[in-house]
Each structure stands twice: as structure tokens, then as C-alpha cells.
Write a structure and sequence with these properties.
Two copies of one chain form a homodimer. Chain A is an alpha/beta fold. Helices cover about 35% and strands about 25% of the residues of chain A.
Chain lengths: ~400, ~400
Amino acid sequence: MNRQALSTEDRAARKRLAELAAGRGFSIHQDAVANLFIRRDGSNPSLPPVLIGSHLDSQPTGGRFDGALGTLSAFEVLEALEDAGVITERAVEVVSWTNEEGSRFSPGCMGSMAFVDVGDIAGWQDIRGVEGARFGDELAATLNALPEARVQPIGHSISAFVEVHIEQGPVLERAGVPIGIVTGVQGTKWLEITFTGEAAHAGTTPLEFRKDPLAAAITAIARLQQAVMPADPLARLTVGRMTVEPSSVNVIPSKVTFTIDIRHPEEDVLASIEARVIAECRASAEDHALDAHIEKRFDMAPGTFDAAIVDVIENACESLDIPRMKLVSGAFHDALFVSRVAPAAMIFVPCRDGISHNESEFVSSENIETGAKVLLQTALSLAQGAAVKSA
Amino acid sequence: MNRQALSTEDRAARKRLAELAAGRGFSIHQDAVANLFIRRDGSNPSLPPVLIGSHLDSQPTGGRFDGALGTLSAFEVLEALEDAGVITERAVEVVSWTNEEGSRFSPGCMGSMAFVDVGDIAGWQDIRGVEGARFGDELAATLNALPEARVQPIGHSISAFVEVHIEQGPVLERAGVPIGIVTGVQGTKWLEITFTGEAAHAGTTPLEFRKDPLAAAITAIARLQQAVMPADPLARLTVGRMTVEPSSVNVIPSKVTFTIDIRHPEEDVLASIEARVIAECRASAEDHALDAHIEKRFDMAPGTFDAAIVDVIENACESLDIPRMKLVSGAFHDALFVSRVAPAAMIFVPCRDGISHNESEFVSSENIETGAKVLLQTALSLAQGAAVKSA
């Protein structure tokens, strides 16, 4: 699956979802960052809606379930309510957040960040995608590709947000439990590091003349690999991207750019790992007489979800007699940003071998159905009752 | 300078040189790998010609002198002989060897390898360039772009070969000597290593599930950097290329491909470094439960040039009262392959700060002129005298 944010593939998926919504008579709208909303009205228009959903964009070599599962499960809930003729007091809205993955345009979660007003939409316009496309241009093209979805002011009031998502880890599968109730999310930081040296002949350049940015990057990352992971089993350190220029077998590189993704459930430990990364990179660059440029691309603190929403999901499982367990998410999700403006939580379903961000990502039909049932029951409780108070 | 082998830029340079040759009434021809020859006849057609020249292709971000200097200095020699109306007993031929750099199509020195029949021209046809182009197609297009140069059988008999080239190192400049007489070349091996793991989520994948090929590559290369260079000051180990897939900040890579260029003047030491590289890469791949594929892309043993030709150059410098020193080349050159079928040697001129394979590569006009004068005097000696015997 390659349906990266704001790409033609992403636009086609939005178009299809909008057609399905129109077919059921639901109203649709977008906002300034192309978050897509599908609304089924409630009996009391004065109450803010219950929001459910996830995202439609994928990694360049992603799976079929990461994001799409939660978005389509939410739409299924809307259809189930419609099919059953249920009248809810609150409207129920399905959302597909823009650019959750951040693989094409960094940072990730742009849609939910902008929705809760922590994102800099103006500043994002000139961001270039990995293939050179400009964010602002791709955003405009995506908005224009869906003229039937009127553009509303961003960040409208909601009463709660619940997101169904694949676990992207092996915990549920190993425990043989179909539902995970997510109580929080570990923190994530993305750093982009650029070392600039000097291209020179691989065979003739004297040792003291070599300014090799790749050698420096390798030294720094090797030290970090030894120091951070698995030294701390809760820590994650991943170099997902590395580009080398001019990229010739017999030329000492002139420039190397690489990313480091670090994660930890404890904010202070996460900060100390970030400090270690920066220190090792600067030290190695200095040893090799290189320029070092370090930029923070993404920074999401560990977060805790709303206890009241967690209880509603727990009760939904109880009423449906579905086994569940509480866990903390290793991945960040839009729900963590949305939880800043409304009570929110997440529902995880198991994925085979815990594999995600990979074409072999898989979720069984039974688990998909179970997740949708829990989401339906949760949405019913939230939409019929009074506004949920944050614990 | 970006004039990579068989590119449109390379064809334009060949075209220009052919026009200059036609303008002076010299005959031109090509062979099956598009080596380009410009001939000024001698008085005795039965004697094989003296060959002088270098190459016209460059690195993707190369300088203006690497290769082009030796080719144009050789053409300047032909023009000087013509201007002076000198009659040589042997014909003097200028050559521009195809794909010396090997940056677009690996291996390098294809032209001189094929000329001395150590290359596998048929096997090269399907080699893909870094941008995907097929060698065979680009070769045919390059040959067809120069219809005025008839195609002759490859590997015609020659009496000697002399190549002027920039030193690509700082030795001459530091010593303040304008001419280096090259007595030999250090050996070079190129390895291409591919580690294949499994793409997975950077944040949620348990440690025991991670199969990270980039982490494995970094571990192996870091060990090699400590063990090989600068431990042995004569050794060179360079990773010039590294590509990471799928290249997403929050995805553990599925595949990493990198090249290692190793050099040493002693054949047995070079072999032991190669063995060390292979061992470290296999060990690290095994530690990370990865597939490892290692391919040898280029293998040039250290070589020694012809003592008689070295003496001719020495005498040329003496007769012109030009300071010179003997040295061993850190870079491989076409002359090393040609020396397998005819006595050969090289003339080095200083380049600023020893910088090459870089846009800031520079050679002073004075040094260029000195190099051309020595080449002219050397060519005169070789073309007028009897066949040079190999020492």
C-alpha cells in the first residue's frame, strides 16, 4: 500500500469515502488542512458531535489497515446507526485526519495538530515532500479534488474523540485478547541530522585531508546503538532515512543526511536520550572536522488518555462480553493531539506478528468486526448521553 | 562538472574533440566500447603507433581536469607536432578511454579493460546505470552519435602508452615539484553489500522482532573503520554509496545497499582487508538475523609501470630542465590496464590541495603547460626511436 498524504492515491481514497457518504445522505466537509469530516446529525443540534475516525494516508510501503481500518470502522458505525434507524442526541462525525504518517511531508499528525491549534499551517506551506513536491500545492490540489465537501473553519467543537487502530505491536496477539483499551501513548521525537564534509578521491586523499560525513555519522550512530537500545528495553532508536551525496563508489561523500526516531514512555528519559543523540552527533562531527546541522522535526510528549472515555470503552466491552486489556501505545496517534481539546481514547485490535508499516500487515476479519462493534457501542453511549466530562 | 560515461554530456565532448581533430586533418576512429582514437600518421606505416591520452568522462560532481586534462594535453601534442611540421617515424595516436570513472556504470576503466581483453563486453551490455539506463543502449547511442569515426576492431597494436593526469593528491604540491613520474599504482577493490531485513514500525516493534539492516551495516562499518584505517596508514576504506529502503523516518528499514572501496599498494594486505570486510559484514548480518549479499564490483591488483618508459619521461624532464619526482599513484588509471599489452607509464601534474572528484578541483596554467611539454618531448622520443623494449 502506497497512499501517502495528499498524493493522487490519497485523493482517490478521499473521493471514494465521500461518494459512500453521499450515497447514505451524510453531510461532508473539509477544513484548511484537508481533514475530512462525515456527519450524521443528532436530535439536538446545539450539542457538539461525537468524533470517531482515524487517517487514510499510508507509509510508502505500508499496510492496508494502519489508519484505513479506523476510518472505515467509524464509517461502518455511521452506516449501522443509519441502517438501524437509531436517533442519537449528539451528531456522530467520522474524521479522516490529514498526513498522520509524516513519511512524505514531515511532521506527522499535521491534521490533528492543526485541529487543536498546535500546528503552524502557514509555516508548513513551503515544506517539500521527499520527491520535491510542495506541501501547500498538494494541499490545495487535494482540497480542490473534493468540491462537494465544503470547507469549514478548522477546529470546530467536539464532545469526545475515539479512534480505532491496529496495535502495530504483538501484545494483544500474544495475550490472545481481541481488544486493547489504550490508556496512553509513549513520547516520540524526530531529529534530522546533516553532516557536511568535502567530496574527495577515495584513493588519493591523505588521511588528514579526509572530511568524511558518512564515517562521522556511522561512528555517532554506532555509539548511540550501544548506549540507548537495548540498554534501556523501553527505549527505541531508529535511523529510518539516510541519504549520501554525491553517492559514487570511489568518492568520499560530501554530505550525509539522516533521521533519528526516538521513543520512550517517560518524558525525562526521552529528553535525556535526545540530549545524548545531539551530543554524540556534535562530537563525531567535530572529530571529523565537519559542519553539523541538527533539526527537530517532530516532538510529541508521552500522553495519557481520558479516564472517563476509557471507562466508556471498558463498559462497551463489558456489555458485549468482549475480552479486553489496557495498554500503552508504542506509536503516536492523532488521538493524542485531539485529547488536548476533548476527552479522547483509543481502541486497538491485534495485528498478525505485530507487523505494521509493512505490506504484510494483517488483521483478521473477526478482530476487525470486534473492533467495530466496540466502537459502535462506545459511540452510542457517548452520543446519547450528556457531554462526557474529563476525569 | 557532470559528464558521466556515455551520457549526452559525454557525447557532446567527444563530438567537440572529433570536430577539432577533423579541423586539423587527423583521422579518427572508435572501437566496440567507444574508445575514441585520433591519429597523426608517421613516416613508417608498418610500425605500431605511440598512444597518448586519458579519458573524458567525469564523476557526477567532478572537476574539470580529471581525465580531460590528459586527453586535451595529448591532442595539444598532436597539434604542436602538426604546427611544427615534425615528421615522426611512428604515428602518434590520442585516445579517450570510455568510462574510466565507473560512477555511472560500474566497473570503471571499461574502455582500457576491453582494449587489453580483460573485460567482458558482452556481460556489460545489461549493466544498469545508477539512474536505470542500460549500458548497451547508451554505448550504442554514443557510437551512433559519432558517425564520422569509423568503428575498428578493438585492441589494435600499439608501441607504448603515456597518460598525463592530475595527481589527485597533495604530494607534488607540498614538495613544490611540477612533474610526478608515476612508477606504479596501488590496488583497488570495490564491494557492493546488500542487507535485507524487514520493514516495521519504529515505535511499536519489540526488540526481538527488529530486523534492522541499517543498524547491522552501521555496526559492521564502524568496526571496519576502527580496524582498517587509520590503523594502517597506507590503507584506504571508503563507503561512497548507501541507499536505504523504504526511507521513512519512523520505519525500520527493510533493505540497505552500500559500497566499500578499499585500496592498498601491497596485494596481500589488500586481500586481507577484503577478507576482513566480508567477515565483518557477514557477522553483523547474522547478529541481526538478516540476509547478506556481497558482490565484488571491481578488482585491480597493484601494478608497476614500465621502467624504460619511466626513463624516457625522466630524460624528457632532464632535457627540458624540469624538476620531477617519482611516485606511486593512489588512484587507478587506464594506463595500469594498458600496461598489460604495451610498455606504459604516467605523468602527474599537481592539483590544488590535492582535491579531486570535486568541483573545486584545480590545476594552474603553468603546471598544465609543463605537463604538456613533458608529454610532447616524451612522445617525440617514443615516436622517432625504435620500438621501446619493456624492461
